[in-house]
Design goal:
Number of strands: 14
Largest sheet: 6 strands, antiparallel
Strand content: 15-25%
Radius of gyration: 21 Å
Distance between the termini: 42 Å
Order of helices and strands: EHHEHHEEHHHEHHEEHHHHEEEHEEEHE
Strand order of the largest sheet: 2-4-3-6-7-5
């Protein structure tokens, strides 16, 4: 039996799965696993994403899990950098290698020769000690003086499972990104069996109900309809307003569409906006074009009544920090007050030592 579902129902289901209807009492590691990773193209956004989702999350709560290697940053879904648990890194990395192989088959990779040998050499270098791209480039140039070292580093990063090691990714830390291999970083960690079926079902748990195209958009993989078909008898089917078939885990939360949704600040690159082929359940196409820039930046947004209503940015000002809110339309007084209060809490959590913390609203810009 197929049940009809409208955009607002999909919105509330997504917010529930993404832990944005209420803050949850769980650890950062548990939340990261529930979300099947958090996109981490920049090191700081996952901290804000966890703060918006977890009760009592402190911005230093990721320090210990990263330094003791329970969570790490590695290229996975869509060929993008993600913050994931150690288990998920080991399980998902082999499944997402085809995405990187496709890049190697691009025109840039077609002219490269000796990539397997360069990758094997790079593995030894990186497992001896984490290296920056600059350091790796110099060492590969010595090994292969006949080749373009920049292209070789590019090919190595696509060929090997590389972890971006701390302090990169720790709140307040800085420094050049350095990498080692996943195997070296998690030496001795139990290696789970890669399972595309588990990956798809966990996606539904974190982002459903969803179409096959949605899960392919999130993962960057193709031919996942075969996986859904294998599990179809155990899934619930829905039909959206466009006539598309969506699938979901039978016992996953699907709140009433009229469930109140609090204002929330969503960081740059958050998977909330990136994990469906049709994003209308969370952001309009008009607003998506403003949030998604031509150079691949996904700007930070805020939610009012569960949908994206504008953008925000934190910057340093003399003696303190300031959160600036950029609405797409006039903000009613009650929502404005809620955003100001939530913004003040965010600044206090992210920058407790700042002498001043202010929240400012820019004039509405309908675009």
């Amino acid at each position: 039996m197929t049940t009809s579902v409208d955009r607002r129902a999909l919105n509330r289901a997504l917010l529930a799965r993404q832990m944005l209807l209420r803050r949850h009492a769980m650890t950062a590691v548990e939340a990261i696993e529930h979300l099947v990773g958090m996109q981490s193209q920049a090191p700081n956004p996952p901290h804000i994403g966890l703060w918006s989702r977890l009760d009592g999350f402190g911005f230093d709560d990721l320090t210990a899990p990263m330094t003791d290697r329970r969570v790490l940053r590695i290229v996975l879904m869509r060929g993008t950098l993600h913050l994931v648990s150690a288990r998920d890194a080991l399980m998902l990395r082999p499944l997402t290698q085809p995405i990187l192989d496709n890049h190697l088959r691009s025109p840039r990779g077609a002219g490269l020769t000796g990539v397997p040998g360069a990758a094997a050499h790079a593995r030894k270098i990186l497992e001896d000690a984490p290296r920056s791209d600059k350091e790796l480039r110099a060492l590969l140039a010595e090994h292969r003086p006949d080749a373009d070292a920049t292209d070789l580093v590019w090919a190595v990063r696509l060929s090997l499972p590389l972890v971006q090691v701390p302090p990169r990714g720790i709140w307040g830390a800085s420094g050049v990104a350095k990498h080692t291999t996943l195997e070296a970083w998690l030496d001795g960690h139990p290696v789970p069996e890669p399972s595309v079926d588990e990956m798809v079902l966990r996606y539904l748990g974190a982002f459903g109900p969803a179409t096959v195209q949605d899960v392919q958009q999130w993962s960057g993989l193709t031919r996942l309809g075969e996986v859904v078909e294998r599990h179809r008898s155990g899934l619930r089917a829905f039909r959206d307003e466009e006539g598309r078939t969506l699938y979901d885990l039978p016992d996953a939360p699907r709140p009433d569409p009229d469930t109140p949704a609090p204002v929330r600040f969503v960081p740059d690159f958050d998977n909330l906006l990136l994990s469906h082929a049709d994003r209308a359940r969370i952001i309009s196409e008009e607003h998506r074009r403003r949030v998604f820039t031509v150079n691949g930046i996904i700007r930070a947004t805020y939610l009012v009544d569960g949908f994206v209503h504008g953008m925000w940015k934190i910057g340093k000002v003399r003696g303190g920090v300031e959160l600036r809110i950029f609405p797409f339309a006039p903000v009613p007084a009650r929502e404005r007050e809620a955003l100001a209060e939530e913004g003040a809490r965010l600044l206090a959590a992210a920058h407790p030592a700042a002498k001043t913390r202010t929240v400012e609203f820019e004039p509405p810009d309908p675009g």
